[in-house]
Amino acid sequence: MAQAVANVARRINATMEEQRDSLGAEISINNLSIDVWFIHRLHYEHISMVSRLAVEVDLQGNVLTTLPEAVANMQHLISIDLSRNKLRVFPERLTDVSSLQHISVEGNQITELPMEKLCLMPALKSVDVRSNPLTPEAASFPHHFTLLT
């Protein structure tokens, strides 16, 4: 397994050095196949490519103003980082992903949170909304998860 991970790391480094946009790789270990995607620059078609198996998605710093619809179909998604984008509205599609445990929208331009919908997410453990111009009542709703403000 270490050999396979090292090979993927080398390919990621080469991708960065060659300034290519993305890299796809498959790691096979004991008949278990895992697709790994490294995305240097976000393109919406990449979201569709990784949606089958994604567990963690890091889309920070991509100047997103909306969330691609494909994210709502990532039913195994556990963590998503949307920090430092241009979101003005909390992406409510995330509330449809029942497996989601951690959401970060730090450093965007969000003023309100859909607290009622967030509270209905069974696996949710934390939501990071630091460095957003939230209204004072945005986080006042009782909740079962950690809310970083």
UniProtKB/TrEMBL annotation:
It holds the Pfam family LRR_8. One of its GO terms (cellular component) is cytoplasm. InterPro entries: Leu-rich_rpt, LRR_dom_sf, LRR_domain-containing. Gene3D superfamilies: Ribonuclease Inhibitor. Keywords: Leucine-rich repeat, Repeat. This is Leucine-rich repeat protein SHOC-2. It comes from Cyprinus carpio. The lineage of its organism: Eukaryota, Metazoa, Chordata, Craniata, Vertebrata.
